[in-house]
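Hi V.,

Quick status before I head out on leave. The structure for the redesign project is tokenized and pasted below; the design run finished overnight.
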């Protein structure tokens, strides 16, 4: 079973992140968050709100995508969310910044392992 959650800034009372996870632990974790999420968390406290629980992973993905679309991503100029994808298991519609970062990590790399053109030993 899965959950859908949101993080809300304490200073402005705005939602800044929508997420999904296999357990409530993910909603409270700082692990594997983007730099924009960490930037918000350095500035202010936040609350975690579990929106849905006990649903399938597929349902969680659908709800995450819908919420991200409704609230809007900051990197696309559409809202307050620091999410870097459209949701639904990640990887879809990354921001220009995310695309450039990925491109730079693979430049000069023939094997796709991100060695930035350095010879493989």
């Amino acid at each position: 079973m899965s959950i859908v959650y949101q993080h809300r800034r304490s200073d402005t009372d705005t939602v800044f992140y929508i997420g999904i996870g296999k357990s409530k632990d993910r909603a409270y974790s700082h692990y594997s968050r983007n730099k924009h999420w960490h930037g918000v968390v350095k500035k202010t406290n936040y609350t975690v709100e579990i929106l849905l629980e006990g649903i399938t992973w597929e349902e969680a993905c659908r709800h995450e995508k819908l919420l991200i679309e409704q609230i809007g991503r900051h990197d696309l100029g559409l809202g307050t969310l620091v999410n870097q994808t459209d949701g639904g298991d990640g990887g879809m519609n990354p921001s220009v910044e995310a695309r450039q970062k990925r491109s730079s990590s693979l430049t000069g790399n023939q094997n796709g392992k991100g060695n930035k053109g350095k010879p493989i030993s």
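Above is the designed sequence. The mean pLDDT is 87.

G. will cover questions while I'm gone.

Best,
W.
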